[in-house]
Amino acid sequence: MSVVIEAKGLDLTFGTGEGAVHALADIDLSIESGEFVSLIGPSGCGKTTLLRVIADLEKPTGGTISVNGVSPEAARLARAYGYVFQAAALYPWRTIAGNISLPLEVMGMSKADRQQRIAKNMELVNLTGFEKKFPWQLSGGMQQRASIARALSFDPDMLLMDEPFGALDEIVRDHLNEQLLKLWAQTKKTVVFVTHSIPEAVFLSTRIVVMSPRPGRIHEVIDCDLGDDRPLDIRETPKFLEIAHRVREGLRLGHSYED
Hints:
By secondary structure, this protein is α/β, with parallel strands linked by helices.
C-alpha cells in the first residue's frame, strides 16, 4: 500500500500574541491507501482541526503535510477527498437526488452521467427509492447517509468524516457503523474518521490515533487488527475489549480527563 497522507512536525497556532491558541503540535502521522483511521480524543484536542488541515480547510503554521503526494490545496482542487460534516448539511430546498447531484453539477457533468452516479451512490448507502424526498422527510440517520452519498458522488480517493454519527441515538449509530464498514469494504476508500466514542473507533478502524490536548498531540497509534468480518457482537469479545482498554488507557495517560 502507498502512503496517501503524510504529516511531519505539523503545527498550527490560531491568532498571535497573548490570545494565540496552539491547536496542534509536532504531529507525525502516515496513513496508507485503503486504511480506516480514527482520530479520538476529548473536545479541544485538535482532532477536527487535524482533519480540516488534511482537507485544506485550515492552514498549518509549521511542519509539512502531503495528501496524495501533493499539498492539501492541490489535493482539494483535484477532488481527492469527500468530506462528511457533523451535521448532514443538506440543502432543504433540494431533493435527496438534487443534493447528491450538486458536486457533479459544479464539475459540469452531463445529466445522464449525474443520474448514473446518483443511482449508484444511493444504492451504496441503502437509500434507493428516496431520490425525490426532501431532507426534512428523512430521519437524521438517513440524512447522514445522503451526505455520505454526496461525498462519494464524484468518486474521491478518500473520505474525511468529522464525527458524522455523534448526534444520533445508539441504535441508529450502531446500524450506521455496520453500513459504513460494508461501504468501506465495497469501495476500498481511505477513511479518516473523527470520533469521541471508544467502541465506535475500535469497531470501525484499522488504526486508532489517540490524541491529547493543550496543544493537540498524538499520544499513541494503536493497531486494531480485528479482521474484516466485524459483526456488532464482536464488541463483546476479549480482543475487542483489550483494544478498547488500550485506547482508554491512552486517553487517560494523555491527560484527556483533566478540566
